[in-house]
Amino acid sequence: YSSVELTQHMLQRIEQLDSTYNSFITVTQQQALAQAKAADERRAAGNADFWTGVPIAHKDIFCTNGVLTSCGSKMLSNFVAPYDATVIDRFNHVGAVSLGKLNMDEFAMGSSNENSFYGAVANPWDTDRVPGGSSGGSAAAVAARLVPGATATDTGGSIRQPAAFCGLTGLKPTYGRVSRWGMIAYASSLDQAGTLTRNAEDAALMMNVMAGFDAKDSTCVDQAVPDYRAELNNSLEGLTIGLPKEYFRDDLSADMQQQVRNAIAEYEKLGAKVKEISLPNTHLAIPAYYIIAPAECSANLSRMDGVRFGYRCDDPQDINDLYKRSRGEGFGIEVKRRIMVGAYALSAGFYDAYYKKAQQVRRLIKNDFVEAFKEVDIIMSPTTPTPAFKRGEKTADPVAMYLEDIFTIALNLAGLPGMSIPCGEVDQLPVGLQLIGNYFDESRLLNAAHQYQ
Ligand code: GLN
Question: Which protein residue has the closest C-alpha to ligand 1 atom 4?
């Protein structure tokens, strides 16, 4: 098939099916066909990359030149980015075809994709259920086979949890492995771009494009990038898997435990050894995250002021009225909640008690992992406490929603890479196995995922 034929086919699928899933915010039909045509020409001229002509789609958090970049918010519902994020730029460079921009929780805050200004996203496995969040559009689009792979971001689980809920492979790389330039910031010390795909091989192929140093992001690490695909077939003989006892708690359902334990037994058959470990500060991860992430978001979102870009209220009376009403009308409820929590935690009288304390706890959590990786090569756990829940089930209770992140969030605080891969079903819904790696050990994660798949 030519890329134009392939692109036409995918666009047709999106048109026929996405009214059910709502996974796309913008479908860039014309641009996609133009990119496909250029890719076909490039292939004919003999200078094609692996990716040349392959369709892909991007979470609407990545600035895309000339295309609406909404971040799932009314605040940016009129924002056409004037430049490309580095991640977008890299895919353009190799000739990938972008089909459009994917739905997400507003400013990446959420675990169910119910916080989007563009409406909730349906899980293709059961359309009454959530696809997970915040990268719910990326996950639903790949799971529904509307696109073979999608970019996504993960601040506290937003790649791994949707992967688990939609039966996909999700990779959140080490903090600093992929450039955040042009990726709209939620919590800058936690945010990282990654992939949602059907399997580890596709993730490796995406990482070969995305990973690497970028002078435009001062937190992007200047370290050699391996060929991730070349490492997929290494043997797992002798691999030591750590099972943190705090992640296999009694309140995790027997069915969930069973699926994860079965997967680990498969790893033993592949030659791996299993060892129980302890990450004693695990219970502090959610409280620390829900101070640090809102604190950073309150600073990052202060740029959305109705003056420079984005939504502006009608007929402002003066500058204060303009700020107040633009932000009051432009942000959704969850975003406002986080800005308030964050501004409070950072305020003069409370900074030491909340923000500073949370940062200290963060170091303890990181140290737990550093100690654990002296004994084991990889850590495994469930990705989520339950399979996908019903839409509306947790919307009235933000704390119940935050508890969804219990197994994913510590990694972001530590900056470590993590993956979720499908490992069975509970109640006919997919379940995820989480793989946690040491710093810059994405190759090992992808290798381990590929051997299981
Ligand atoms: N669910 C978490 C939150 O709402 C994680 C979101 C994310 O990783 N972007 O903050």
Answer: 110
Q: How far is the CA of 171 from the centre of ligand 1 (A)?
A: 15
Bond preceding residue 326 cis, omega within 30 of 0: no
Instruction: Name residue, tokens 């009314």.
Output: 74
**Is the CB of residue 246 below 6 angstroms from any atom belonging to ligand 1?**
no
Among 389, 401, 405, residue to substitute to test ligand 1 (most atoms within 8 Å of Cβ): 405
CA angle (243, 246, 250) in 5-degree steps:
105
Domain residue limits, the chain: 1-453
Task: Please indicate, yes or no, whether the overall pTM of this predicted structure exceeds 0.95.
Answer: yes
Question: Which CATH class name applies to 1-453?
Answer: alpha beta
Q: Which of 102, 109, 300 most suits a substitution to test ligand 1, by most atoms within 8 Å of the C-beta?
A: 109
pLDDT at position 57, please? 98
Tell me, using a 6 A CB cutoff, whether residue 108 lines ligand 1: yes
Tokens coding 190: 């936690």
Give the integer Cα–Cα distance in Å for 23 and 122: 8
Task: Report residue 107 CA to chain centroid gap.
Answer: 12
Question: SS3 of 390, please?
Answer: strand
Sign of the C-alpha dihedral, residues 207, 57, 189, 85? positive
ipTM exceeds 0.95: yes
3-49 pLDDT tens trace: 999 999 999 999 999 999 999 999 999 999 999 999 999 999 999 99
Query: Do strands 273-277 and 240-244 pair parallel, antiparallel, or not at all (unpaired)?
Result: parallel
- Among protein residues, the one with the nearest Cα to ligand 1's atom 10 is 109
Which residues are catalytic, by number? 59, 134, 158
**E strand segments, 198-245:** 240-244
- pLDDT reading at 375 higher than 90: yes
Q: How would residue 404 be classed by pLDDT, with cut points 50, 70 and 90?
A: confident
Q: Is the CB of 342 under 6 A from ligand 1?
A: no
